[in-house]
Structure prediction request, 297 residues.
Amino acid sequence: MTNPATTVLLTGASGFIGQRLGPVLEAEGHAVRAMTRRPEEYAGPGDPVFGDVADADSLRDALADVEVAIYLVHSLDKPDFEERDAAAARLFGTVAAEQGVRQIVYMGGLGADDSDLSAHLRSRREVEHLLGEAGVPVTVLRAAIVVGNGGISWELTRQLVKRLPAMLVPQWASTRTQPIAIDDVVRYISGVVAHPDALGRTFEIGGADQLTYVDMLRVVARIQGRPLPILKVPVLTPRLSSYWLALVTDIDVTTGRNLIDSMGTEVVVTDTSITDVVPGDPLPYEDAVRRALADGA
Prediction:
């Protein structure tokens, strides 16, 4: 099924997902409006428009005559990210309702609702609710690690394998996750835009493989031809882990801590209903890794 062409506001248009999604939306015939705080510097697809998720007036201008809004905003690198993201989502949803937006599409995080979610995943759940609080139907796509050049979680994996001759990992490294290629994320997002069967629904999306974090590191090391001895240690707190990551990678301490806090929660797909709306098989992890490495070469 080909979704009807529509006017789409793409927030985070120059970000990791947004810069790949914009060209696909345009190719499918949608009129793309790229929201940014620096429209004069934007060189990507679509028409740049100023917008700040903390400024209601700018959101009214950005959302005027928009039918579908894609919300790719989060503040993981800020200590008060939960409060920031909640306020931004509430305001965005309110203004979207005022302007007659018919659908909001949001990228959330995998994880069972009844599990002990980290602050990061709790915040993603709260944003899902707040975006739709004023009445606009929200389509949520919940994912775990997104594998692609420039993604924070992928960069963490890639840099650890590249820079360390061996690795000590804590117990959370044995937690299962279901990484997904950025190409599949873009395919799913574009597939639910203006799709009548996606309105007001939550979907789980993941790649073809369920792996532990140790498994993921080993796959990357093997593809790159690098020996990587891995030893699990019983005591390595999230706080210590985040400082260690900041020393050996480009990931800042705050972001590292928020990511690590989520790694103790199993995040795998348990509901495959997305395939009823967006058919197709996702890439295996190894293929996703090879594409990410090629893109970054």
Summary: The CA atoms of residues 3 and 266 lie 33 Å apart. The chain has eleven helices and 13 strands.
